[in-house]
Design a protein that fits this description.
Elements lengths: L9 H5 L18 E11 L2 E6 L4 E6 L14 E6 L6 E7 L2 H9 L34 H17 L1
Parallel strand pairs: 3-5
Antiparallel strand pairs: 1-2, 1-4, 2-3, 4-5
């Protein structure tokens, strides 16, 4: 068998873009481009996004970004609009959280759109809209007493 003379395999090639964390210049939209927030990932390099103009578009992640830039639901992206298909677009760039905050500060993004994945679930409680409230009309001591009775019940049984 021939001897391997390379400098490493695919795992070495994956680690090439370690300098991606550096500050980069903020890219604003041009003619034929729009800001969008990813609503859900569809697989096969596609996602669904709501653009700033209010339309929901099926977006295709370009090949240069496909396995190098990870996009998740709630991320702010720059999409290129298609002249011949209004309901489809191509993801050109993913904005990092600090870049999305800067875009909001410059007035490019509306205030209502979330800039992080965590902000897409802000305001919602558990189970998609139910909020946890303390039981009204009972005191803290009564709640503890009920919990201790339930615990004793489970221990006896």
């Amino acid at each position: 068998m021939p001897k391997n003379k390379g400098k490493g395999g695919k795992n070495r090639k994956r680690g090439k873009n370690e300098a991606d964390d550096d500050k980069r210049e903020l890219v604003f939209k041009e003619d034929g481009q729009e800001y969008a927030q990813v609503t859900r990932m569809l697989g096969n390099g596609r996602c669904e996004a709501i653009c700033v103009d209010g339309t929901r578009r099926l977006c295709h992640i370009r090949g240069k970004m496909h396995k190098k830039v990870w996009i998740a639901a709630g991320d702010i992206v720059l999409v290129g609009l298609r002249d011949y298909q209004d309901d489809k677009a191509d993801v050109i760039l993913k904005y990092m959280n600090d870049e999305a905050r800067l875009l909001k500060a410059y007035g490019e993004l509306p205030r209502r759109s979330g800039s992080t994945r965590a902000s897409t679930s802000m305001g919602r409680g558990r189970r998609g809209g139910q909020r946890l409230h303390p039981v009204r009309g009972r005191g803290h001591r009564q709640d503890l007493r009920i919990l201790s009775l339930l615990a004793g019940y489970f221990i006896i049984v």
